[in-house]
Amino acid sequence: MSSVSYATVDVFTAERFAGNQLAVIPDARGLSDAQMQAIATEFAYSEVTFVLPPENPENTARVRIFTPTTEVPFAGHPNVGTAFVLGRQQEIFGRKPGQALRFEEKAGLVEVTLLGNEGVVSGARIIAPQTLQIGPAIDPAVIAASASLRSDELSERAHRPVRISVGLPFAVAEVRDLAVLSKARPNVSAFEEANTRYPLAEDSFSLFLYARTLERPWYVRARMFAPLDNVIEDPATGSASAALGAYLVSLLPDADAKVELVIEQGVEMGRRSIIAIAVGKRGGAIREVSISGDCVTAMRGVIEV
């Protein structure tokens, strides 16, 4: 029987046992696809990453990302957390804050910058691998049913419910206020119906709900439900946060803009996460979207395979 080492980290937080849990296998050589999926299912976190040698030696690593049920082409907190784990291996690689890494993933190349101070890596900033993709529009009744809400509890002051992506697609909708957001609950039957009506080749129907105020439009509270991927609720969803930030900035009338957002997630789960999003818009088009956050190490161990 062989074994592989793992580390778990809490992502988008500077406080241990908050944020979003991630398991990282820093050396996944020799593992089959079936073993990777089995390990991800065993952890039952929203994602587990497997680090492999890059296909192009100019890149840092090839990173594969698995949910408890499937492999996905891109996700935010797995990239931030994986970069943190690799960055903390300074005694081997000599990595320090400010260093750039590059991950090969199914969605494309992910550019990474290690963050920290006094020579200690404390997190990472990543660039979303794809441009903003918008559509289709989603029937508000589908959103409301999926979240166990009434249709009049949704808000269309900024946009109608829609599927958006910068690497991994999500249905996104704004709700009326924090009270509505807090009472949302996933309805699995409604999710199954939505998945049939709005199918995806690479993933199942997942829903990102958010609330914000007119006074603080760039401070967002959010929740993400993906019960068809065995993720009843996710404490932090960087890929959805990045897509939302890009979409909201795309709706601004300005042809050029640089906007920084803070997205707070996981509060209702007792795992508060803080996700920093920066969006650059030039000539009327979204040019760059970054996702940043802190991380802390939680556990280390060995898996028998």
Automatic annotation (TrEMBL):
The similarity comment for this entry is: Belongs to the PhzF family.
Name its species: Sinorhizobium medicae (strain WSM419) (Ensifer medicae)
Q: List the catalytic residues.
A: 47
A Pfam family matched in the record:
PhzC-PhzF
Q: What is this protein called?
A: Phenazine biosynthesis protein PhzF family
Q: What GO molecular functions are on record for this protein?
A: isomerase activity
* Gene Ontology CC terms, in alphabetical order: cytoplasm
Q: Which InterPro entries match?
A: Phenazine_PhzF-like
